[in-house]
Write a structure and sequence with these properties.
The chain has two domains: 8-107 and 224-241, 3-Layer(aba) Sandwich (Rossmann fold), CATH 3.40.50.720; 117-220, 3-Layer(aba) Sandwich (Aspartate Aminotransferase, domain 2). The strands form two sheets. Strands 3-2-1-4-5-12 form a six-stranded parallel β-sheet, sandwiched between helices. Strands 6-11-10-7-8-9 form a six-stranded parallel β-sheet, covered by helices on one side. α1 crosses α8 (234-241). The protein has eight helices and twelve strands. The longest helix has 14 residues, at 84-97. 32% of the residues lie in helices and 23% in strands. Bound molecules: NADP nicotinamide-adenine-dinucleotide phosphate. NADP nicotinamide-adenine-dinucleotide phosphate (NAP) binds next to β2, α2 and α3. NADP nicotinamide-adenine-dinucleotide phosphate binds next to β2, α2 and α3.
Length: 242
């Protein structure tokens, strides 16, 4: 039971479409206060219904303190599968306070007939592999992780990100989901012969487009999931919160 004894409080660690949809489902529930936390990486984030707080917590200590002060009863970590640090903080802080924690992670992508994928363990490894695969690369790993690509010689690079990257690379800005047609146009227009992505899961239009055009894909594996209950759909998470 939360601070008031009547209203329960759930913290949704967000920054994904799933987190937003979960907040939408939970927001209407009587007796439930829903707070979504965003890291503040994007300057104009889509705000979910319910309360929204923005910015880091200052590690495990800060998060535990915030959870205590706000009388949080349960936490759903619906952050991106590659946002491993905040997930670690959530595991440690909820363990310390004896709070319930659920991780909501969309399933990763699976190779199908016609794909030409090469799996790597890190973005740095992906960058190192690019010159052996192609000469015109589309990089979709997020603007924070472009550094290793900017140092590649002899490869024409195009990064796609929501906001302008801080490293000096050619960039096309856009926020998904994208249609397969738009992805086909982008790959064709720039004669892309290698695509680099993280195994984010979800919208797979770029992978479908790469398959159709026979473009090889370098896929960065996810960090291992935390040792807590993990579900893959918004409905499962919404049922857990009840
Ligand atoms: P990260 O490496 O796990 O987190 C770095 C730090 O950012 C955390 O230690 C925490 O700071 C703060 N933080 C992260 N998510 C937060 C949240 N939801 N609310 C409050 N603070 C948060 O995460 P990241 O990879 O930088 O991702 C940042 C955000 O972008 C996440 O919310 C994630 O869902 C979203 N996102 C990430 C990716 C990706 O590819 N990594 C893609 C799409 C969206 P303190 O230690 O100070 O608490």
């Amino acid at each position: 039971m939360g601070r008031s004894g009547l209203v329960r409080t759930v913290l949704v660690l967000g920054g994904t479409g799933e987190a937003r949809r979960l907040a939408e489902v939970l927001a209407g529930r009587p007796g439930l206060r829903v707070v979504t936390s965003l890291a503040g990486r994007v300057s104009s984030p889509h705000h979910p219904p319910g309360e929204v707080r923005i910015g880091g917590f200052d590690g495990v200590e800060g998060l535990a303190e915030w959870l205590r002060a706000e009388g949080v009863d349960a936490v759903v970590d619906a952050t991106h599968p590659f946002a491993a640090r905040i997930t670690e903080s959530a595991v440690a802080a909820t363990e310390r306070l004896g709070l319930r924690l659920l991780v909501l992670r969309r399933p990763g992508w699976r190779e199908v007939e016609g794909d030409d994928w090469r799996w790597v363990d890190s973005v740095a490894e992906a960058a190192a592999m690019v010159p052996s695969v192609g000469t015109r690369a589309l990089i979709t790993v997020g603007r924070q992780e472009l550094e290793p690509f900017a140092q590649l010689d002899g490869v024409w690079l195009l990064a796609r990100s929501i906001e302008q990257p801080t490293v000096p690379v050619r960039a096309v800005l856009g926020r998904g989901p994208f249609s397969v047609e738009a992805e086909l146009r982008l790959l064709r227009e720039h004669a892309i012969d290698v695509l680099v992505t993280k195994d984010s899961g979800g919208d797979d239009a770029k992978l479908v487009a790469a398959r159709r055009l026979g473009v090889p894909v370098i896929v960065v594996r996810r960090p291992p999931p935390p040792a807590v209950t993990v579900v893959s759909t918004v409905d499962q998470a919404a049922n857990w919160v009840i």
